């Protein structure tokens, strides 16, 4: 048996639903949603009533976001567009929420090199992006704490070095002479530039 078989929309949808990626097909400069699998419909937070509508009408919260313009560029130029970790504001259960996606808009061309459809595939990477952002925030906070600690230690050293008298640091029940001091230390015979620990209650010996 030879010859090609034209699949109807139900058969095509069944094939799309086998894809692990959310998938949709658009046509025209208005980016009309011709087909979308269950995963894509779920990402949009819509139902199948959007099929046959321009994407901006079907998902109005996309207004002001770059996606419609990108799709129109793909339709006009016939050049595929791909992106990773891209944020999108979508309304789910009436609440506008930020998600992150890896996606591709692939131009499907006829024998004349003209775009006749756009194949949209996308993967939700929100969890991995949020985890990475959280880790980066922890690292930034740690760097900031380390920098602040170093600056604090430096400032303390400068204060002690510029003091006209010997300075002791109290740590719990002990008195700690830890930092270099430019003035000679006569108490207890402690030599300059060295540090010793004395119990808080033990007096210095002359």
From TrEMBL:
InterPro entries: PAS-like_dom_sf (IPR035965), PAS_4 (IPR013656). Coiled coil: none annotated. It comes from the Bacteria. Residues 20-129 form the PAS fold-4 domain. This is PAS domain-containing protein. It comes from Mucilaginibacter yixingensis.
């Amino acid at each position: 048996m030879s010859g090609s078989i034209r699949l109807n929309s139900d058969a095509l949808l069944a094939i799309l639903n086998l894809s692990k990626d959310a998938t949709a097909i658009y046509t025209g400069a208005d980016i009309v949603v011709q087909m979308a699998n269950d995963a894509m419909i779920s990402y949009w937070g819509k139902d199948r009533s959007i099929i046959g509508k321009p994407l901006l009408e079907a998902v109005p919260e996309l207004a002001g976001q770059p996606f419609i313009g990108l799709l129109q560029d793909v339709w006009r130029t016939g050049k595929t567009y791909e992106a990773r970790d891209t944020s999108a504001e979508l309304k789910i259960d009436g609440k506008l929420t930020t998600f992150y996606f890896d996606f591709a808009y692939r131009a499907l061309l006829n024998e004349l090199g003209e775009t006749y459809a756009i194949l949209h595939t996308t993967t939700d990477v929100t969890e991995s992006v949020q985890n990475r952002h959280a880790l980066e925030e922890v690292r930034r906070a740690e760097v900031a704490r380390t920098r602040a600690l170093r600056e604090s230690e430096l400032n303390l050293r400068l204060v002690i070095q510029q003091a006209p008298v010997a300075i002791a640091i109290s740590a719990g029940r002990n008195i700690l002479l830890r930092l270099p001091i430019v003035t000679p230390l006569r108490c207890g015979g402690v030599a300059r530039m060295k540090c010793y620990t004395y119990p808080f209650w033990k007096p210095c010996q002359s």
